# Entry
Amino acid sequence: MSNAAIAPETLETIKALDKYEAGFVTDIESDFAPKGLSEDIIRFISAKKNEPDWMLESRLTAYRHWLTLPEPEWANVSFPPVDYQDAYYYAAPKTAAAPKSLDELDPKLLETYKKLGIPLREQEMLNGIAVDAVFDSVSVVTTFREKLHSAGVIFCSISEAVQKYPDMIKKYMGSVVPYTDNKHACLNAAVFTDGTFVYIPEGVRCPMELSTYFRINEAKTGQFERTLIVAEKKSYVSYLEGCTAPKRDENQMHAAVVELIAMDDAEIKYSTVQNWYPGDENGKGGIYNFVTKRGICKGARSRISWTQVETGSAITWKYPSCVLLGDDSVGEFYSVALTNNYQQADTGTKMIHIGKNTRSRIIAKGISAGKSNSTYRGLVRIAQKAENARNYTQCDSLLIGDLCGAHTVPYIENKNPTATLEHEATTSKISDKTLFYCRQRGIPEEEALTLIVNGFCKEVLQHLPMEFAVEAQKLVAISLEGSVG
Amino acid sequence: MTAAANKESFMAQAPQVAAALPWLADADALQNDKAAGWMKALRSTGAEAFSQTGLPTLAWEGWQYTNLRALTPAKFRYSAEPVKFDAAKIPSPLLGAHRVVLVNGQYQPKLSSLPEHVTVMSLMEAADKNIAGIEEQLVTLGDLGKNPMTALNAAYLRDGFVLVVAKNRDVAEPIEVVFYNAGRDAAVYPRVMYRLGENAGCTVIERHCGEGAYFANIYASIVLESASRMRFYRFQEESEAGLHASNTVVQQQKGSSFEGFSLGMGAKLARQEFRLQLIDRAISSSIGGTYLMKGQQSHDFTVLADHFEPDGKSVQHFKGVVDDQARAVYQGKIHVRRAAQKTDGYQSHHALLLSPTAEASAKPELEIYADDVKCSHGATAGQLNPEAIFYLRSRGIPHDLARSLMVESFLGGAIEKVSYEPVRDIYFARVAAWLAGRGA
# Structure
């Protein structure tokens, strides 16, 4: 049958079925470090970024330690061993100098972010969200800097912070996630190329949502960025993170480190919508998302809240955690992890209660479809001094189809009798009755499924800032496509 | 968690672990006995597997809450010589007259008596006669690299017994099995097997006790043929200096049912593992337990309900109290395999901490590969509700009594699940005695 015989709409529909819309590649000239990983590569990265000696030293220390670490194997994920020498550790769009404003930014980059639904310029006009755009290894542009500056907020790339605020970087970077923490965080400490630094001074409520948009563009590159957020006493900040990558057949590694520090009465709200390329329906390609995220509630009455919607990545392996050190501090974790086809997710959180009257809340929703596996793994630890600590954990799993898996692995450790710990978990499938009810009302099966899943995730999605909540709902719908029938 | 598990993969690759070797010191001598070739081969396999891992460390997934420090250095020695003991010290029967007695793992026919339709013989005798498909049962031990206790038990395969209930027979009277350990730093490795024929039924009461210091590493397999029914009640009342590690594997065939319950109150350090294998359809399996820990004691219940086929039902129900500097662990897992549709799985664990230095850890885990299942779990940990105590005191009940009443009613939630009333009453009596001894 020739193409002419097929109605054009059909062709359109078939094209549209291939729904990873962020899967395109931007044709832009890039600067690479030579392939592979060695001390020289680290020196190269450090030199590229014109870093002070202490930074290079700390990178090399981390690298030497990394060499001694075995690959972690305890998670419920499987993948061929990573060849660390077969990747580029530095790739940056070629630009003459760092752009001072959007007008100086390469139009191709502007176009890329527009296609991704992050219209940097419009956002500037509409006075919406301040964005730090990270493209492969470097931060290409940060919007709204003046406005934030007048509020006393520092919002810039990590590279810039290393130059401009070395004291703060020395003091805080690695203080929550030291390079000795785990293999992937250690690699990041050695080769991180960029990331975002946020500092909210005492008593300041950040006037707008801050956001970083991560984009992997080049083939065979790993992305290693660091985010560091410091919220001084009585300050507040809400931070969003989004990520996409082109479709490629090989796996690419993303090993980021995020550190949050909240002082007395400060609040940090950190939201992630992770939509890295998940690989195709046969499990080929996709991003390995091996991220270490941890926040410390250092001050009394401080609060850190993680919200994540994980729909992308071939493998998601991360545990955004809270160390509740300050008395009366609060940690929260809201998560939706959706896996389809051959995706694997082993994600959850750690709540470490150290201070008195600390409270934490974990709501985790896992949805598995296709041949995927999704694991919730979470730790709640009550230290001996954590009087009257409270934790509430609820993890629910939903299975769509009979070839997928849903797993729950909570670790509950209590060393204080005054602590109150509650844990609940359920696993179920979408009931035929509910589906039937929707279909009977004229809703097609796939839409009905999306509707039910979005309802299942509602408790988590409502914690996302509005713009992200809408995007997340759409993502859930797209990710579920093809999981019925 | 991370660094911990790294070491696990390390250990598995290591050729031999030096600390493992003293544990195997008496294994070579054992090989001179008259055991069948396949038994000797099995011992070698066990010894080899154990020499590559040694005892599990806190770095192992599944062992991070139970520290085996009390087992190092390896001072416990195994002996195949007939054990000398004072028969008067063996505790008198709890119920009825039928019992099987083991001293240091060695079956004592003279002290044992059995009801009709039940056959018991020592493991060696059963192996000689190859009754009850024993070879097949003994060699199926799972991944020894991941179960060093099982590997170590296999390395000393000799002691223990086989108990068979004839098919279509319902044995009304309970059979008491006494594992008495005579101390003197002995390492004992009994391997026991219960086999219920088709449509058979029985009630077994296992008592683990002894005096002085010893290490008891027990491996028990229970084979329930189709439509058979077993009630299995354990009293882990090892001596204060005793160490207890038991693995109980329950293999359930079509339509069989298993009701298990274990009380953990003895030993310096104890770990009781249960693996329920629901290998066919329409099986019901329940396991419950309670622990009473004080002083420096440490107790670990590790349970796996493994659903292979559709329409299975498994329940895990554990409750316990921890006082002083004691520690308690519950690790439960429901594994639902791809084919096991319509599985109904439930697990719960509730811990009560009575002192500021007590510790309770739990890992209630679900691993599910079938979509039409109902699985849930709940876990809580906390202290006695001060308001409830105040309420009781305001009614004129003294503080200590109020506390006891509350602990009893808390544990009652688990013990009530025991369907055999005489044993249920004994469990309640044990709790009351423990509380009285606490002056609580």
